[in-house]
Amino acid sequence: MEFVRGNPFNRDDLIRAGVDKASIVIILPFDEQDPVTSDAKVALLVMSVRGLNRDSYIIAEVLNQGNVGYVLNAGANSVVSLGSFTTTVIAKEIFDRGASSALMNLIRRIDIMDSKDFIGLRFGDALERLRISGRGILIGVVRGGDVLINPGNDYTIQSGDSLLVVS
């Protein structure tokens, strides 16, 4: 990872930073004091990066959860809104003490696994196979960008799916 100082809206600075060749680009908020302007700048920067590099995986952070869709439409592959995440974790902790520690531990241990060895298996059978082999606990499937947590024992794993596994 490399840090390059410059204007993120200047094409030459973006190229100097290597976004035209980067496989992954991370875009963080600009100004937490002004969420509306910050999120608009994030969306604009996503469009600029996408214009320079059609193949990069762009991860962006917005301050307002309501702007996630706009930034996705601008060309980001993944958009995170830590504000809503933080609020959810705090609310969960109020009702279930210790939940925040468990959640942080869980996040650190989740892996995304290729499904090639499990294609055609039902979710319940794949869960059992992973558990017995000691490779982890299957908690969900990613299909076409949709995350399905515990989709049911009869859910069939298909080619192109990814598995969410707690190791």
Number of helices: 6
Arrangement of strands in the largest sheet: 4-7-5-6
Supply the CATH superfamily name of the largest domain: NAD(P)-binding Rossmann-like Domain
Terminal-residue CA separation: 26 Å
Tertiary shape: globular
Which descriptors would you attach to this protein?
three-stranded parallel beta sheet, alpha/beta, globular, 167 residues, 6 helices, 2 domains, Rossmann fold, four-stranded antiparallel beta sheet, Alpha-Beta Plaits, 20% strand
3D structure, described in words:
The chain is an alpha/beta fold and 167 residues long. It has two domains: 11-85, 3-Layer(aba) Sandwich (Rossmann fold); 108-166, Alpha-Beta Plaits (2-Layer Sandwich). The protein contains six helices and seven strands; from the N terminus they run αβαβαβααβαβββ. It has helices at 11-16, 35-52, 68-74, 82-95, 99-109, 123-133; strands at 24-27, 57-61, 78-80, 110-114, 137-143, 146-149, 162-166. The strands form two sheets. Strands 4-7-5-6 form a four-stranded antiparallel sheet. A three-stranded parallel sheet has the order 1-2-3, covered by helices on one side. A hairpin with a 2-residue loop joins strand 5 and strand 6. Helix 2 (35-52) packs parallel to helix 3. The longest helix is centred in the N-terminal third of the chain and has 18 residues, at 35-52. The radius of gyration is 19 Å and the shape is globular. The relative contact order is 0.10. The mean pLDDT is 92.
